[in-house]
Amino acid sequence: MEKDRDPPRGLQFILGTKQRPHMVDTLVMANLGYWQMKVSPGVWYLQLAPGRSADLYELPPKLIAIDSLRGKLMHIEVQKKKGKEREELLNAADDYHFQEKMVCSLFSY
C-alpha cells in the first residue's frame, strides 16, 4: 500500500461513479493491507474517502474496470502528503473504540 512501508491500517477508500462518487466504501485491514468492495461489473472510480484518509494521503482518483463477479486483484500505492509523514492515521483511542465495536458486533444477535 504505502510505498516501502506497512499497509496504512484504517485507510478508507470509496468507490463510485462520476455522478455518485461515494456508492461503496471500505477500509484497509491490518493484515497484508487487504481490502474489498462489493460492486457489480462496470467502470468505477476509486479514491480516498474524505476526512483523515484524504487529509494525510495522496491517491489520484483511479478508474477501475470490473468485468466479472470473480473479483479482481489490485495493488494500490498511496503516499503521505508532504508535512504529514509522521502523523498517524489512527490514534490509540480510535484503535480502542474500533476494537470495542468489533467485539460488540461479534456478540450481538
Task: Briefly say what this structure is.
18% of the residues lie in helices and 23% in strands.
Across the major sheet, the strand order is 2-1-3-5
What string gives the helices and strands in order? EEEHEEEH
Into which percent range does the helicity of residues fall?
10-25%
Kindly report how far apart the N and C termini lie: 35 Å
Query: Which strand-content bin applies to the residues?
Result: 15-25%
**Tell me about the biggest sheet?**
4 strands, antiparallel
Count of the separate structural domains: 1
Radius of gyration: 15 Å
Shape designation: globular
> How many β-strands, per DSSP?
6
* Tally of DSSP helical segments: 2
The average pLDDT is 76
The parts where pLDDT drops under 50 for at least 5 residues are 102-109
